[in-house]
# Entry
Amino acid sequence: MVRVDEFPDEFREDYLNREMPAFDESPFVLGPPLAERRVSLISTAGLHRKGDRPFTEESGDFRIIPKDLPDEDLVMTHVSSNFDRIGFMKDADVAFPINRLKELAADGVIGGVAEYHYSFMGATEPDKMAPSVAEIVAAMKADKVDAVMLCPV
Amino acid sequence: MSLVREHSEKIKPPRALWCGFELGRPFGAPNEPDFQRRVLAEALALLERPEGPILDDFPDGPPGGFTGADDEDNEGWTCPVNFGGGEEPDLEKDPAGAVRREMALLRSWYGLALENNGKTMVGVSGIGIEQCVDYLSAFALDPDAPPFRTDIPRYNFFKLCVDDIKAYYFEAATARPGPATDKEVADWYYGQSAMGEFLLKLNDICSRLDDPVLRKMSDRRLIPVHQHHLKS
# Structure
């Protein structure tokens, strides 16, 4: 089990009190009904295609994960040892629910699944990811994405 | 999705669904597609809410509860192999031999895991698992031993070797059906295997190196925080 409340005291306090990015306002936009939205996933689990570059310490870069990548070709090179990987070993959807997303699209709950999805390695200063985000936004616009699910680990 | 409510309270994203699941399992539990779909649908449904910021709480824990051990219907995870007995190579003199012996004992369980999971996380180092053992054992003798890959930083290659071996042990150890938690398997891996003992030694070496990244990794990258009591 890796729950924050089970971390030893000093680490738990450090983790919970970690400085977070502060924003003056919380942007809030409305959009089309969910059943018309094309959804993309962004994971911070350090996921990528087998054979793609592994993630490095403090990196703010990202990897592209195509919609139809076979489950067995998705691997994880997150630098942290402090979260569970057994779940992902058995079933990638526990962290990156691409198959569940396709099912929701087939059932008409969402409009569709984006062609491309993305992963960062989350143990990084948020500022370092900012340039990558601009790139992803451009790619998502081209992919007609209008809903994004951020999936942490 | 939010796994740490305290963090989401500070960041105030426009829409978030907090789930009290284990870190690493934002959609609850593996091989529970109905539950995963429910979590995903509930999070996506926040998109239709007209006002925010929203930080909702998902009402349920993952199927099967958090620990196998606390569940009356389940006796908890136990290691499928016994490393004791037989001729055990001396870890100090021959760490590679000691680790290889354990890996041989785990091999048929690893094969079963491969069959059941239909995939493996072993292989991220880009070299064979035997070579991962060779490199770590060379590193223990001399941290400047040449890494087997030069296209990535040394610390990165070192960590990927560590991760490949850990994945091998963890996949083999959880090949049998039934829930297994990270803490249960980690208690065994770091506390009872020769590889765990070897990792503690490698961690100690890293903590004394001039290389700032490897030194920093010895804080909590190589040994999880819930195993820090094992560090010397």
